[in-house]
Amino acid sequence: MSDPLATVVGMIKTRTLTLAVVALLAATALPATAAPEVPSPQSAVPSDVTVAFAVYDRALGRTTLSHNSHKQIRSASVVKLLIALDYLEARGPDATIPPEDLNRLVPMLRSSDDYAASELWVLNGWEKIVERMAAKLGLEDTAPPVDVGFWGYTALSAADVVKIYRYVLDEAHPKYRAFIMDNLHQATTCATDGFDQSFGLPSAVPGEVAYKQGWSRFGDTPPRPCVEPPHDRTPLPAAKDGPPPRTAPAADVDLTRPAMHTTGTYGPADRKIMAVLTLEPVGTTWDTSAHRLTTVTKAVYLADRVLTQ
């Protein structure tokens, strides 16, 4: 069996990089010592798993690796980036964030607090948040949720996630940039709901990373709680997601299969932006999905490193 990284390198030379990360197709074999071994994407991405990804190099000013990057996938908690950005943009750089809103924004960004996101969603316009941000940032694949009561049903793509980070890092007011990125650089291992959110980027990429994760349809109870989730919260009219819909949504966005996403930045001065979005078969466990997403993220990271080194 040919060496996986040799196959990836061969495909780089034949300009078919994207497919190399998803499946090891035929390619020119190179010596096994050419570079470190890349985990086999074949074992990480079965045919019944949907994966979409994009990597953007800010120093080169271009996307260096992508696959299915414009496929619409429900956002889960990745939409919290837009909720936070919309809040800051609406108030202006000179506004002082009141303590009650800081107590929502900070845990939402660092620990993926769903309750905080629901409060901000309701207070700041529900689906109008997504509409404003999609228009302002030129997000091609982003659309409000088909049921506005569930912000996690927002549709987006890996390419649009990269655009969000590019806007924050290179176009947004420095105060907005600092607020969002400082919090993402301090993302916690444990989410507020007790799930371990260290899958994907923080586990697969060496060095410091800033990250915002997303997951949906894995139940309310983590397999091994990181922290005890709060239980004394008043029910709100909005949430991340709800029961599987009885009818298909108007847009071609899967609302039923478990979703797990990793997004963020790494490298000096947040040079690289990566988004890896996945949809798993119904019934996939948290541990299986987290392991698979981390393996795919590692393969994408190594393939991109070969391309840009």
Automatic annotation (TrEMBL):
Keywords annotated in UniProt: Lipoprotein, Signal
Keyword Lipoprotein: yes
InterPro entries, sorted: Beta-lactam/transpept-like (IPR012338)
Region spans: Disordered: 220-267
Keyword set includes NADP: no
Leader sequence residues: 1-34
Source species, domain of life: Bacteria
Gene3D superfamilies in alphabetical order: DD-peptidase/beta-lactamase superfamily (3.40.710.10)
Name of this protein: Lipoprotein
